[in-house]
Amino acid sequence: MSQGIDSDAVPAVTVIRPPRGWQLINFAELWHFRDLLYFLAWRDVKVRYKQTLLGVAWAVLQPALMMSIFYIIFTVVTHTYQGERPYPLFVFSALLPWTFFATAIANAGNSVIGSERLITKIYFPRLAVPFATVAASIVDFCVALPLLLILFVCYGEVPGWNILMLPIIFALFVVCAAGVGTLLAALNVAYRDFRYIIPFMVQLWMYATPTIYIELAPSNPASKYPWVQDLLPLNPLTGLIASFRAALLNEPIPWPMLGFSALMAVLFFLVGCFYFRRMEDSFADVI
Amino acid sequence: MKRTIGPGVFEATGDHQAANGLKEKMSVLTVENLGKSYRMMANAGPRTHFGYRTLRDDVMAWLKAPLRWFRRDAGLPPQDFWALREVSFSVNQGDVVGIIGHNGAGKSTLLKILSRITKPTLGEIRLRGRVGSLLEVGTGFHPELTGRENIFLNGAILGMRRHEILKKFDQIVEFAEITQFLDTPVKRYSSGMYVRLAFAVAAHLEPEILIVDEVLAVGDIAFQRKCMGRMREVGRSGTTILFVSHNMPAIESLCTRAILLDHGKVALDGGVGQIVQEYHRRVLSGPGEVVTDLRSLELPSRVYKVFRSATLLDEKGQPTNFLQVGGRFHIRLVLDAPVPVESPVVTLGIDDQIGQRLLSLQTPLTNPVLPRLQQPGTLDCIVEALPLAPGEYWIKLGFAGVPDEIDEIERGVRFTVTEGELFGSGRGHHRGVCIAPSQWCFEPS
């Protein structure tokens, strides 16, 4: 639906036909609706913190409180953590992108069924709905970022050149979250079971990712079930979280793992978007 | 198959363009052989017809699939319900077309396909230019956001670019008459303000094709007029409008052409006057709920349920929903006596579609026809010539006594006044809400 609103030229012809199954992502149309994407994301951010006492501070408090809880569990209650870095620094540098990822996929997964009224009444590229929720989660991420700066100052940590990789790694997080989010959103329309599956999935995924604990090197004699350790890198988030942390704390970036994760992130994005596009024609009928 | 039904009315064949000789105008919308079917699960409950699937159902169906090979009778095959079938028509630039039909004729499905909310099962549509659809005002408004914020959000949802919204912003605010509440969250708006703002945003979208569904059934009468005025203005500026409504006077005053849908097919396509007449003729002959059973109707205003049923009767005493214009109005109320009431008074209020009271009928306060209510009975009210113009009306039923309201039902009975012979002078042309016999006299000087 590309149209010359500002020109006097003959307007473009739109053809409406029965659905043809798999179809490409219409980036031109999404681009035309970029203002919609912006306003939907802006609405999500605005509404989320409206009528809350602390407002947008919650974006900082959520990962900060989680960090405190894990700090108490891993260093005060038990003495499981045996890393070199101070635990708050270690855990927060992973919790920050994880919180982004978790909120993005959970909100995106519920975004389409939450926009039922919109979808049954107005046409617009449906992908804008899950994409906008992911964009809103990026805002939260940026709000929580200064806390990381404070931790760096407190612990006298100085980032190295590796930190230049951070935006690229975060971009991969965004691509991965957008892919998983759209996939869940489309599945949620067809099967409402996903409303209940998503929270468990997020929790399970967190424990399957070395966010709050250090993953042991493969075949480390300390581990009882070495094959579990060997499976961890298959989780695309393992590479992303490890690389994000490494880039922040100036440790060597695990390139092979990051490469695999990048591939998986793009794959998730394509699968998510294509499945979504295939299902979106029936959204208004089944939602 | 061009069967002439009245002057200028043809059986729809999709060549309306040729029929009217409007070849110099550009066709902006062509619908060809459009069909939409929904799958009905024959062995599922009514609520799951178009409903959600669960993983469990799908996994089970998947696992059971091989069994079907052995048991042919396992479950009925799914049935298709065709909401639209073989629909073809074309609309020229600047046409204002009314789409009418009884409930379930496929009007909403057609609009949903045209506005790209849902996809057709068969056929093809070609649209030239931007489509703005007003399927429900206020869709996309967020209650927590302010009026100002919602204007931008809603504009973007309708496909406007930010600079377009900025350009129209003042006009929208002025049209909606909400200047001093611009920075108040819309959840604190009155419903009137809400609707005004929503319509204002949509009405200032400047699409090539505007699709409107029953939006004029909301708001107060002054705003209704304003909306109609705005629609007329939009129509004059060369925008093509498709307008769906049950409100025949609105269709007649706004549209030049109408399409009558019946059971998913185009029944007729032609000039608005004839099509509306045909619609009334069809609806008249169709069955409808003619006896309104009020016993099970629960309302806070029904302190005691005095009204058992209300029925409109025709000249022969048969229940009906239709009156001819200028004809006899006869309503029979069956009353229960759940509690004795002193000096009872029954009031009938006749309202138009938007709730404006047009007429009030009341049992006399002096020389009462109603004794103290202490036993069930039947009350008849007759108006020999009902002075209402053709249209749809609601009757409000009220039963009061000393000292209190006993039973009150807003919109209790619905009826339609149809075109017909008026004052024995052949067919009349009605504008306005009421009719009166008049005598005219001309004396050449």
Our estimate of the beta-strand percent of chain B is 25-35%
As for the number of domains of chain B, it is: 2
What oligomerization state is this entry in? Answer: heterodimer
Helix content of chain A: 55-70%
Which structural class best describes the helix and strand composition of chain B? Answer: alpha+beta
**What does the radius of gyration of chain B come to?**
26 Å
CATH superfamily of the largest domain in chain B: P-loop containing nucleotide triphosphate hydrolases
Low-confidence stretches of chain A at least 5 residues in length (pLDDT < 50)? 1-9
**Distance, first to last CA of chain B:** 55 Å
List keywords for this structure.
heterodimer; A: 287 residues; mainly alpha; disordered N terminus; B: 445 residues; alpha+beta; Rossmann fold; 2 domains; six-stranded mixed sheet; five-stranded antiparallel sheet; 9 helices
Break the fold down into its secondary structure elements and pairings.
The complex is a heterodimer of chains A (287) and B (445).
Chain A: E1 13-16, H1 27-32, H2 34-49, H3 58-77, H4 87-114, H5 116-121, H6 128-154, H7 166-190, H8 194-207, H9 226-231, H10 236-248, H11 255-286
Helix pairs in contact in A: 2-6, 3-4, 3-6, 4-6, 4-7, 4-8, 4-10, 6-7, 7-10, 7-11, 10-11
Chain B: E1 4-6, E2 9-10, H1 16-20, E3 27-40, H2 55-70, E4 79-92, E5 96-100, H3 107-114, E6 122-128, E7 131-134, H4 147-157, H5 162-176, H6 191-203, E8 209-213, H7 221-236, E9 240-244, H8 248-254, E10 257-262, E11 265-271, H9 272-285, E12 291-293, E13 307-313, E14 319-320, E15 322-324, E16 329-335, E17 342-352, E18 357-362, E19 377-383, E20 391-402, E21 405-418
Parallel strand pairs in B: 5-9, 5-10, 7-8, 8-9, 15-21
Antiparallel strand pairs in B: 1-2, 3-4, 3-6, 10-11, 12-13, 13-14, 13-16, 16-19, 17-18, 17-20, 20-21
Helix pairs in contact in B: 4-5, 4-6, 5-6
